[in-house]
Amino acid sequence: MLRKKLLVVGLVVVVSGCATTKQRQPLMTQLQMRVGELERQLDVKDEEINGLKYDIKDMVYEIDRIKAQVKNAPSGSLKSTSVTASRRTRKPIAKKGDIIRVNVKIKTVQQALQNAGYYEGNIDGKIGAQTKDAIVKFQEDNGLKSDGIIGRNTWAGLKTFLE
Questions:
Q1: Residue 13: what are its φ and ψ, rounded to 5°?
Q2: Which residues have C-beta within 8 Å of that of residue 90, sequence separation ≥ 6?
Q3: Tens digit of pLDDT per residue, the chain (163 long)?
Q4: Cα torsion at 119, 124, 125, 126 (round to 10°)?
Q5: Are 132 and 148 in contact (CB under 8 A)?
Q6: Which has the closest alpha carbon to 104: 28, 157, 39, 42?
Q7: Distances (CA, A) of 16 to 8, 11, 27
Q8: Residue 128 Rama label (left phi>0; alpha psi -120 to 50; beta)
Q9: pTM for the full model?
């Protein structure tokens, strides 16, 4: 009789333990899913912050370019239309920070340009005339601002040509 009671009590403990474990598993799954969602939201916010940083760099670059143009121009020779015209025809400066404004290596840009059929030179990680010309041609053919600068929009189009 005592054995039967102990056996029943043991079974009740085992069954109740399993029921408690079953209730915890869905809670853990829900928490893991929530953490994953929060991590995705954090990634989106990080991308937005990086985009804003590049926008600021673009603005600083434009301000510096206009300041240099004003400084070098004779008094009274600058008109508002000359700034707009020079923006369309300016040649990019061959410093990486000015040409590439996204977090990507020059070799990766050259590879993407080559895969897209715009660059035939060596993948050497150097920004030369061939690389600059390929960037501008890619931008023109894809309806982008053809300034020779790899910004977010240009890179979004180019990176699709990477394997």
A1: -65, -45
A2: 65, 147
A3: 777 776 677 766 666 655 555 566 788 888 988 888 888 888 878 877 877 887 787 788 778 878 887 888 776 555 544 444 444 444 434 455 578 888 899 999 999 999 999 999 999 999 999 999 999 999 999 999 989 999 999 999 999 999 7
A4: -80
A5: yes
A6: 157
A7: 12, 8, 17
A8: beta
A9: 0.46
For residues 65 and 90, the answer to whether their CB atoms sit within 8 Å is yes
Which amino acid is residue 161, in one-letter code? F
Superfamily of domain 92-163: PGBD-like superfamily/PGBD (1.10.101.10)
Q: What angle do CA 153, 155, 160 make, to 5 degrees?
A: 110
The answer to whether the Cα torsion of 105, 109, 114, 120 is positive or negative is negative
